[in-house]
Design brief:
The chain has helices at residues 35-53, 130-134, 136-139; strands at 16-20, 63-73, 83-92, 96-105, 108-121, 124-125. The protein has 143 residues and is an alpha+beta fold.
């Protein structure tokens, strides 16, 4: 994955953010937050975003799965300062949506992630929840 467009590295453009406190166990041998822990922070940020945006509430009888994820590690993150996960909808389809996430620590960009989620039923892909699609513009990356 190429480095993200610099315009996507501005936290002010993201309509949602949440803070996560790293644990000492999240460190690698160089005392940086390790890549596996960062992927977990991004996952937690997606879950929090989906709760806030109403996506999770609209999944009655459905589920959701991630079908693509790409993480760019752009800087070092350290313990114990919290990281902030910024989230925005980048695009939507009939059954899927793409999220972009930016991770900052002490106002420094440390990671960028682009992921695609698909809504599924027992029969396969299903339309996105109506309540989510009706308010998607609220959750898109700001111009």
């Amino acid at each position: 994955m190429p480095k993200p467009d610099p315009a996507l590295l501005d936290p002010a453009r993201y309509p949602f953010s949440s803070r996560i406190e790293p644990r000492f166990g999240d460190l690698d041998v160089n005392l940086h937050i390790n890549n596996v822990a960062m992927a977990g922070f991004l996952e937690d940020g997606r879950v929090r975003f989906h709760r806030e945006s109403g996506y999770r509430d609209g999944l009655a009888g459905l589920s959701s799965m991630i079908v693509s994820v790409g993480i760019e590690y752009l800087g070092e993150a350290h313990y114990p300062d919290p990281v902030t996960i910024h989230c925005a909808v980048e695009d939507t389809g009939r059954t899927s949506h793409r999220l972009i996430q930016l991770v900052t620590q002490d106002e420094r960009v440390v990671a960028f992630c682009r992921s695609t989620m698909v809504t599924v039923s027992k029969e396969g892909p299903a339309p996105l929840p109506a309540g989510f699609t009706e308010q998607t513009d609220r959750w898109r990356i700001k111009a």
